[in-house]
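Response to reviewer comment R2.3. The reviewers asked that we include at least one raw input/output pair. We reproduce the pair for Xylose transport system permease protein XylH here without editing.
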Amino acid sequence: MSQIFDILKRNSLLIALVVVMVLFEITIRATNHGSMFSPSNFTNIISQNSYVIILAVGMLFCIIGCGNVDLSVGSIVALVGAIAGVMMVNWESNIYLAIATCLIVGVLIGAWQGFWIAYVRIPAFIVTLAGMMLFRGMALLVLDGLTISPFPPEYLRYFTSFIPKSRADAFGLTLIITLILCAGYIIAVLYSRFNKIKKHYEVEPFTSFIFKIVIVLVALLGSGLLLANNKGIPVILILLAAIVMFYSFVANNTVSGRRLYALGGNEKAAKLSGVNTNFMLFLTYVNMGFLSAVAALVCVARFNSAAPTEGNGYELDAIGACFIGGASAYGGVGTVGGAVIGAVFMGVLNNGMSILGIDANWQKTVKGMVLLLAVVIDVLSKKRVKA
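Raw output as returned:
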């Protein structure tokens, strides 16, 4: 019995996500609104919430490193999207040149904010709040208050197409790729656990470890079946997987990742240990600017337009995803996997309430309450685990 309680405590967020998904599915079916887990709707959930995952990963590094957030990411998305629209649609520039320009602009914006935060030591809240207004204004100036569309088809296919191109081949190829991913996941987590044991690191209890593997495998197989019954694997899902795996590796297996956690845990101690804390703090905002630019490219492709209102509220979704995912507001605590689960949680909440036809004002109210409740439950469960 104690092992069961231990599993529930250690995986409270994951279990909460599953419970919410099941409750939504029951409610949606009972009210004859279809199904949340129809193949087409599942693909829509991935497309609609791709920007949340991308921004949440970048926001997580800001929170881990300094306990601060970036309030400007929505405005950066709008500005970079505006630049992409002007270059690709109005100027008919080469799409690769436009993509490179947008990414460079994102990095420069991140460097601009990172300089004031890391080296001048202006509070991040003030700098990014100023950035939120500054970059939104610049987006309005670039677009002259107008919406630009449509984008070139050769650009859209990099973010809105599917693998394989033929729907007839989608089922078999998608299942094969899903099984390969399942095998790769099992090998990776087993290798990681055995490596930690070999180095005498602390590992989670075996039952909890197996439980988590089973949940992930069920999620992978279920997702693969739903995608296989639709159009196949969305290209955007491959981009998301690459971003999540890369940043998970950086956070868990690199010196920079360890230094980032040390910075968030105790900046003075990290500095005395030889960590260039200013530079690490600077890099977190450069990275946030880069990922904001990636999110902008994804968003303009999804909407097939660049609008001055794009990105409104995106920073709140990203911040909410991180805190729901277990990040600490004080810094030094958080995982990429947790941020992704938090982003999926927000996405399921948005999609489920939209299908049920709940008023937008009530949706915001519910999301605020769920955010607070999820964080409270997660914090209390972790305290009990430590006790």
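The longest strand covers residues 162-163. The chain has 17 helices and two strands. Further pairs are available on request from the corresponding author.
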